[in-house]
Design brief:
Length: 308
């Protein structure tokens, strides 16, 4: 507690990480967790990569998840979300894609403002991000407590990267895309894993990409299962647990989205590894499904598609 108080005082004094202050509630949720958290240092194509790892409290080996954060980097909320997934029974690794890019060679926490974090994440090269995700996936799937299965779960900017990771990572078992844009149509042919989409009904900017994605994935013979949560805005998985949130639809979508995510992960968890080839069989693409929430107000991030 004394160390945390000192860090907070230093941050106020030197004006660092306004984004971190805005998510103190998420840090408090994380501090209350009984699960084991640790930070690891990896190498991604010869460059350092810091990552946050959370272990579940289970008796058997668990499926591994690469959690890809929002455009806000490895924030308190991203770590809290990783902890929530570990609480559901999975080993979760969340890489800091801004490792070494902040002031004095720091990562996400070293940037003076959330705006600067957003700009830095927006400017990342996709090939570099894929190398970071590969390094995180290689590490987490080889842990003694891991069962060898792998899923990617991404939000906002990270949602788009989760979809892109499915075009890149051949041994990925499933990709979960929360309100992120799709990859190029030409890249979809390389996807081996089923892709599950989660979208807010009041997020027209991202929702406008869904019809074309359905058609493209269908044409490529790939499984794409999108669900839209009516009444929720962009970023509902974060907003739905934010104490300052006033949009009931975000809270409802968060609860329903998390339930759907863990249900699909549980199906993956019970599928024998030797039958993974079944995931490569083309599956019909369902029509758009809409889940009704209780509000019509939106909470959207003010950024263009390229920044997602």
């Amino acid at each position: 507690m004394r160390l945390r108080a000192f860090a907070l005082a230093a941050a106020i004094l030197f004006g660092t990480t306004a984004a971190a202050h805005a998510q103190d509630w998420a840090v408090k949720r994380l501090d209350a967790s009984p699960r084991h958290h640790e930070y690891v240092k990896l190498q991604a194509n010869g460059k350092p990569l810091d990552a946050f790892v959370v272990y579940p409290e289970v008796k058997t080996k668990a499926t591994s998840i690469v959690l890809i954060p929002e455009i806000f980097g490895l924030s308190g909320w991203a770590k809290s979300m990783a902890d929530d997934l570990a609480g559901a029974g999975y080993i979760v690794i969340a890489p800091d894609v801004l490792t070494g890019m902040g002031p004095n060679g720091g990562g996400t926490d070293s940037f003076p403002s959330q705006d600067q974090v957003t700009k830095a994440v927006s400017g990342l090269d996709n090939a570099v991000v894929m190398a970071d995700l590969d390094a995180a996936a290689d590490y987490v799937t080889k842990l003694p407590a891991a069962n060898g299965k792998l899923a990617s779960v991404g939000f906002c900017w990270g949602g788009g990267k989760s979809f892109a990771f499915a075009t890149h990572r051949k041994d990925l078992n499933a990709a979960f895309v929360f309100y992120g844009p799709p990859p190029a149509t030409a890249d979809m042919a390389a996807i081996n894993a089923p892709v599950f989409g989660f979208y807010g009904g009041n997020d027209a900017r991202i929702d406008a990409t869904i019809p074309a994605t359905i058609e493209a994935m269908k044409a490529a013979g790939k499984k794409y299962d999108p669900v839209t949560y009516d009444g929720a805005g962009h970023g509902f998985m974060r907003a739905g647990v934010d104490p300052t949130n006033t949009v009931e639809g975000n809270k409802t979508a968060r609860e329903q989205g998390f339930a759907r995510l863990t249900t699909e992960l549980a199906k993956l968890n019970t599928t024998p590894t030797k039958k993974r080839s079944s995931l490569r069989t083309p599956a019909p693409v369902p029509a758009k499904r809409v889940v009704t929430a209780k509000a019509t107000t939106t909470q959207c991030h003010d950024m263009d598609m390229a920044g997602m």
